Structure prediction request, 138 residues.
Amino acid sequence: MTIHTDHPTTALDRRAPDSGERFPESIPRAAVQRVLDNDRRREVLRCLLAEDGPLEVRTLVARIADAETDATSVTPLLERRQRVHVSLCRTHLPLLEDHRILSYDRVRGLVSPGATLSAFESLLDVGALERPVGARLD
Prediction:
């Protein structure tokens, strides 16, 4: 593996190779890295891990849009939420569903934990599972 010093390290990179933690065989390392390389996808995972069951897409959109809100932003709330909704529904949720990390019911507008979601818990910042309202995403 080539180490690129210009790329930030992630939790996946910082894990000790002999830590005993095993990632599900069904998700290649490159796919895990792709999932964790995006702020919105990480936040989706955090929100699902913090919930006990399914989460409405509109609730997820509101949480992510609020977390991305900048005090100096002039973009109206509705427009921000529309942008987040489009990116989640067209890009992020389908990708996460493809890897069985979540289940996305487009008709009912629900996102449920998938078979491999729990494996990501150790890769995410556990202290950030429940972010305060208005907290910025990294």
User: Anything to note?
Assistant: The first helix runs from residue 11 to 14. The helical segments are 11-14, 29-36, 39-50, 57-67, 77-98. The radius of gyration is 15 Å.
